[in-house]
Structure to design on (848 residues):
């Protein structure tokens, strides 16, 4: 890929990131209730994925580097999931 | 006077060293993610347990300044990504311009954060100091505690990152960092900055968008 | 045994030990072998500090009243003992000394992937150590090494912030060492050194390094939160401010349980090397032993709640953690069976490294079995916070990990220094350590079961005889640990020069001279066969 094409890709990603930012702020004013948290986290994940894939160049990195990049995120995702499930099903007084 | 081969040690090939440098930085970023991770877990659990308190207390945060800060960091990340490309193509002036501007945006982030903290102090939202608090109750207080701890810890990382960006930018400009030979340095510093950005990308909705 | 000062050999003159004589050449060296020795000296100094604290504890416990230390003083003694021994001795011990020295040699590399980062790790360790010594000098801390809230955040009258800073700082030393090992093992293996041919020492250090990188930052955060609460009133752990004291325990143990595997996995890696070398036989079940290291690291991340069975966590969580704590014992047991099977029909030499390995296996099994007992909710409810728990973890940490550290010292000493020590004294030390250790800690199982709480300096008079047995054992143990210091240091000047492979063991480190040259290998090695290929060696004649 030429440098010009690479620059263009990054600019496109930046525009997408800004759009996602606008979206996530707009959703704050929408009546989403309990889905607010899930929606905003999903948008944040999309932004992070773009940053990792293009800005941090995981697109061209080898498998080992990609695993290293995702390891902690995977561990954290499990932790968040388990902790949120525990909190959600917790009986009051427990 | 060390030879080129000696400076490459313990690697034999420059491509090997580059791969190790990139891989090594991602391993380090994994540790940084685990540093902030438990805070995210705490905030996510908090949002599940106290959705009302989160919604009410978050209204005390300045949504627009937070959004502006997010935009600043996202833009600085773009500049850093462009700097890496410039470095790989040996354009030292491009590298310096991008990195120094990105560092400036990082400083701007800190200024905005300072403005926010100042407003929060005046409103009495900081514990122990300032006017009496407008929020009462344990859950709202906890929300503000989590807000201050996570944004302060993040601000420390922004500071470190901005210094690294500035230092690398100056190195590129002064030719002390030969390019494209040492383009990996730009990339590695850049990776750190991108993570600082990613952390904020998650902090922003968890804190500001709870309202 | 000639007491004559033996002159330097040719190997020594060309070795890493002689590449630069100044203090500067040592303190600024990026040679992994020199950094290993820098660590050896620093951790030994802290072992001494921690041992002094232990001596104070055991002296106090000789009588049922507080007549040696005050209650406050006793709290500070066990706190500094735990903090220094865990973070400034055990966690760095085998990885920072033997991992640093041996991993490049074992995989056929010239150094670790990031030599300057390695030196930085040591500098950071020393900085953390300075904070600890400062804290000690100004009076110490009284919270216990576990720093539980709200004592540490609100009520402790010690120097919590400086000790938290010390631990925070030294944590980064750990993280960087782990990072270095991971990248090194992935990128610097010699041609032919596939993952399936790696020494088991390297496998266990790889697993340890993953834990170091992923778990240590959580501790760092927990310490930051303590500081935030103490300094700024950000009460994440304070119920009055909406916080949860149990959150601290969750964060602390999320790190500290994997931390015990940071301490024991390298020890197991050492034992794998010692057993196969002593038996002159390929390890039984290489794949299982390698995989068990990864399994221990993985499962070790999800058992932390077994420290909190009686802390108020949900009973459902306790059941899950109890089950997983039983599961984590399985890969450890697999290792023990494989070591035993390796010895079967082996050509065993009863040298000190072997004796230390046997000591490890015996004591680790006792520690592990009592760990299974503690994993049972009903048993734990009875013995939690008693000396039963103290005995359990000392059997693993001291009986296991420290014994393995000494085993490693006695196995690789000739390689590191180029000198052989007196084997008779080595065997005496191994036996004395084993006996002294059991005398010190077995009575504590009995005491704990009878109800003796941990961290108490006073007790009913009927417990005295057991405490006195334990304290007597501790004095024997003290002498036993001091013994190697004498004969090992003696060997530096007066020991016979060691050949490249004094134990006739298998491994790339034994193919280079003792001590190795600065660049490790004169010609880069190429590996063509599996690990521990003892069939290639002719049968040894018995001495």
């Amino acid at each position: 890929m030429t440098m010009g094409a690479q620059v263009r890709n990054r600019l496109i990603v930046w525009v997408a990131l800004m759009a996602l930012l606008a979206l996530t702020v707009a959703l704050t004013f929408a009546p989403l209730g309990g889905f607010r948290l899930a929606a905003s986290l999903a948008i944040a994940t999309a932004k992070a994925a773009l940053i990792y894939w293009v800005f941090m160049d995981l697109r061209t990195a080898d498998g080992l580097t990609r695993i290293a990049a995702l390891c902690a995120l995977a561990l954290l995702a499990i932790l968040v999931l388990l902790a949120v499930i525990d909190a959600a099903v917790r009986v009051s007084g427990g | 006077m060390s030879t080129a081969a000696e400076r490459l040690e313990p690697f034999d090939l420059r491509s090997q060293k580059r791969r190790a440098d990139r891989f090594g930085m991602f391993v380090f970023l994994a540790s940084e993610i685990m540093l902030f991770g438990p805070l995210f877990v705490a905030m996510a659990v908090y949002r599940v347990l106290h959705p009302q308190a989160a919604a009410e207390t978050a209204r005390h945060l300045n949504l627009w300044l937070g959004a502006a800060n997010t935009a600043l960091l996202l833009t600085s990340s773009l500049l850093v990504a462009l700097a890496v490309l410039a470095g790989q193509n040996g354009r030292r002036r491009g590298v310096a311009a991008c990195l120094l501007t990105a560092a400036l945006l990082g400083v701007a982030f800190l200024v905005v954060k300072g403005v926010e903290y100042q407003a929060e102090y005046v409103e009495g939202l900081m514990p122990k100091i300032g006017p009496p608090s407008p929020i009462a109750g344990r859950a709202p207080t906890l929300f503000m505690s989590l807000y201050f701890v996570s944004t302060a810890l993040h601000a420390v990382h922004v500071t470190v990152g901005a210094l690294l960006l500035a230092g690398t930018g100056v190195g590129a400009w002064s030719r002390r960092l030969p390019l494209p030979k040492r383009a990996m340095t730009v990339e590695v510093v850049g990776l750190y900055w991108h993570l600082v950005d990613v952390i904020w990308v998650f902090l922003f909705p968890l804190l500001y968008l709870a309202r | 045994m000639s007491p004559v000062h033996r002159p330097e050999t040719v190997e020594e003159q060309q070795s890493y030990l002689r590449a630069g004589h100044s203090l500067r050449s040592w303190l600024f060296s990026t040679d992994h072998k020199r950094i290993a020795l820098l660590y050896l000296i620093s951790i030994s100094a802290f072992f001494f500090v921690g041992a002094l604290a232990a001596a104070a504890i055991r002296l106090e416990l000789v009588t049922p009243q507080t007549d040696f230390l005050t209650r406050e003083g006793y709290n500070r003694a066990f706190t500094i003992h735990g903090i220094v021994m865990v973070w400034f001795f055990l966690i760095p011990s085998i990885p920072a000394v033997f991992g640093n020295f041996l991993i490049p040699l074992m995989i056929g590399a010239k150094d670790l992937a990031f030599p300057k980062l390695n030196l930085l790790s040591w500098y950071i360790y020393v900085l953390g150590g300075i904070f600890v010594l400062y804290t000690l000098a100004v009076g110490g801390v009284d919270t216990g090494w576990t720093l539980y809230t709200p004592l540490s955040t609100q009520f402790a009258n010690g120097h919590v912030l400086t000790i938290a800073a010390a631990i925070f700082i030294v944590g980064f030393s750990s993280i960087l060492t782990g990072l270095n090992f991971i990248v090194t093992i992935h990128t610097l293996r010699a041609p032919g050194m596939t993952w399936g041919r790696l020494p088991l020492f390297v496998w266990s250090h790889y697993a340890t390094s993953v834990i170091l990188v992923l778990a240590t930052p959580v501790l760092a955060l927990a310490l930051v939160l303590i500081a935030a609460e103490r300094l700024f009133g950000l009460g994440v752990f304070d119920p009055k401010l909406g916080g949860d004291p149990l959150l601290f325990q969750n964060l602390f143990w999320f790190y500290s349980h994997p931390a015990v595997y940071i301490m024991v996995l390298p020890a197991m890696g050492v034992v794998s090397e010692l057993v196969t070398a002593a038996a002159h036989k390929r390890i039984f079940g290489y794949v299982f032993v390698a995989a068990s290291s990864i399994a221990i690291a993985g499962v070790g991340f999800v058992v932390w709640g077994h420290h909190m069975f009686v802390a108020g966590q949900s009973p459902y969580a306790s059941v899950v953690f109890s089950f997983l704590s039983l599961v984590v014992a399985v890969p450890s047991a697999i290792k023990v069976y494989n070591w035993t099977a390796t010895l079967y029909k082996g050509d065993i030499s009863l040298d000190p490294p072997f004796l230390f390995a046997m000591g490890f296996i015996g004591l680790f099994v006792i520690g592990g079995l009592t760990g299974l007992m503690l994993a049972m909710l009903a048993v734990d409810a009875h013995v939690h916070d008693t000396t039963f728990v103290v005995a359990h973890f000392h059997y693993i940490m001291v009986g296991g990990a420290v014994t393995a550290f000494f085993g490693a010292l006695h196995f690789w000493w000739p390689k590191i220094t180029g000198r052989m020590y007196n084997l008779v004294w080595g065997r005496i030390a191994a036996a004395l350590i084993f006996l002294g250790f059991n005398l010190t800690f077995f009575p504590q199982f009995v005491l704990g079961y009878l109800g003796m709480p941990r961290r108490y300096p006073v007790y009913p008079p009927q417990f005295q005889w057991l405490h006195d047995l334990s304290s007597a054992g501790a004095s024997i143990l003290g002498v036993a640990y001091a013994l190697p210091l004498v004969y090992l240091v003696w060997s530096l000047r007066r020991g016979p020069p060691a050949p490249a492979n004094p134990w006739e063991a298998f491994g790339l480190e034994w193919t280079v001279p003792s001590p190795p040259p600065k660049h490790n290998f004169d010609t880069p090695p190429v590996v063509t066969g599996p690990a521990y290929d003892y069939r290639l060696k002719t049968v040894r004649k018995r001495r």
Notes: Chain B touches chain A through 48 residues (CB under 8 Å). Chain B has a mean pLDDT of 92. Residues 14-49 of chain B form the longest helix (36 residues). Chain B is about 80% helix and 0% strand.
